Amino acid sequence: MFDADQPHNRLPPLPGVGYKPQHFSAILADAGPVGWLEIHAENYMGDGGRPLAQLRHLSNHFPISVHGVGLSIGGEAALDPDHLARLKHLCDWLNPASFSEHLAWSTHDSAYLNDLLPLPYTDATLTRVADHVDQLQEVLGRRMLLENPSSYLAFDESTWSETGFLAEISRRTGCGLLLDVNNVFISATNLGYSPQSYIDDFPLMAVGEIHLGGHDEDEDDHGAPLLIDSHGREVADPVWALLDYTLARSGARPLLIEWDADVPEWPALAAEATRARHHLAQAPA
Amino acid sequence: MSVDQTHFRTALLDSAAAVPSGLSDGAGRPAGGRFSVYRNNVAVSLTEALEDSFPVILKLLGEENFRAIMGVFLRAHPPKSPVLARYGADLPGFLEAFPPLAHLPYLADVARLELALIRAYHAADSRPADASILQSLSPDALLQTRFTLAPALELLRSPWPIHAIWRFNSEEAAPKPSPGAQDVLIIRPDFDPEPVLLPPGAAPFIAALREGQPLGPAHDAASEAAAEAQAEFDLTQCLSLLLSAKAITDIHSGTTP
Lengths: 285, 257
Description:
The structure holds two protein chains of two kinds.
Chain A: E1 15-18, H1 24-29, E2 36-40, H2 50-59, E3 64-67, H3 81-94, E4 98-102, E5 105-108, E6 111-117, H4 123-140, E7 145-147, E8 154-155, H5 162-173, E9 176-180, H6 181-191, H7 195-201, E10 207-213, E11 216-219, E12 225-228, H8 237-250, E13 255-258, H9 266-282
Helix pairs in contact in A: 4-5, 7-8
Chain B: H1 5-13, E1 23-24, H2 35-53, H3 55-61, H4 63-76, H5 91-97, H6 107-122, H7 133-136, H8 139-143, E2 146-149, E3 154-158, H9 162-168, E4 182-187, E5 194-197, H10 202-210, H11 215-228, H12 235-244, E6 248-252
Antiparallel strand pairs in B: 2-6, 3-4, 4-5
Helix pairs in contact in B: 2-4, 3-4, 3-6, 5-6, 10-11
């Protein structure tokens, strides 16, 4: 277990946004309520050029959260040593305020599938994921946050609830958790449970960051609602309501707006961050 | 019943394969079409990554053909790493060997040009050397001088007019390509890579410099290649191109070995 005395992260309990290069100048001119930025680690693994130069510049003005999307922590095989080394190189160079990754897999048989794929919640998966989190934290020399997934289906073989599974990984490894409230709403809708009960069961003490994003609406084969985690629009009203329900129990946390597809001009993203600030202001201290 | 990742991966990449059993909708019914969300995410996101990396190939093939062909490519050559900026290194070879594209033999080299632009964009930064030392060297010392070139520099030689094809599909008002071989140097003076059409002899000259050969032998190789093309190699012009592109990062003059 990684040294539990080390703080989860140094992100402020303010709104942040997922950084897009097209917003570079606008953010530096007027970041509005945005107090920190998140980047996807895999977009900053070149040797030089504009991406790293912009990131270095931004890191002089904002706390940066590095969010990995490709390590495949839930993969059945060992973690890719090359990718671990790339993550370590980036974190050593940038010294970010936080590092997070996903409860998911994406690589198998050396094919990277570029999606956050689901896991059965079994004892075997738990041992494997906890070992991978331990290994990652040792390599990076820092505690990480592990994010809850958005689910479109469930595994018959699962014996753990998702909240119990995440709580146990956090307990075994000392890692913090990244609570994606939009993912909770999506999974609860898609799999037919109460999103409020999920929040009630979630180990909120371990939450170092909250994510919010937009989703699309679809239907499954039986006409049941099937929400898709698209990050391509504004956060939906019921997700804001679920955020309030969460914040009332957790207190203010670093709160990220994710907008990764059909990325709007800066003012539209800043407006979402302003909305996030209003919700944070209602939270107990 | 347990669903392992080998089984899951196979079903993800083959939409004709059955959805693995042991997956449900949370209410006891088989997952069925829900599995397609993952199938779509994989195929669409990888196709979009290829669209971002190969905008000229996309334009040459048209969106519909591009997506269909990339659907074949991404299943045969899924990414080997999560760093998607590097995805597509296998695409030129795939395009060359893909029978339905045999009538477009220049596509592979255009794809190589687009890959080189991405490599240049992400290449290590470098500082240009102070070129004033060249003025002070004797002609003999100059011929023995070696150069270190910027890591972002990329050199391509093609039997096809790849520079003209790239320009025609990237710039407004670029002239229509005409047949003929073209050599291209990708320079990155600051952060934006730019493909430059090279005159006869320049490609072997730059290749020789990059291998660490001194200016003299590099010049000989360039003159020979230019003569084969019934042209003359212009050393001054080629050196000015490299200097103005901030492509020379170190000068090792012949007088101080």
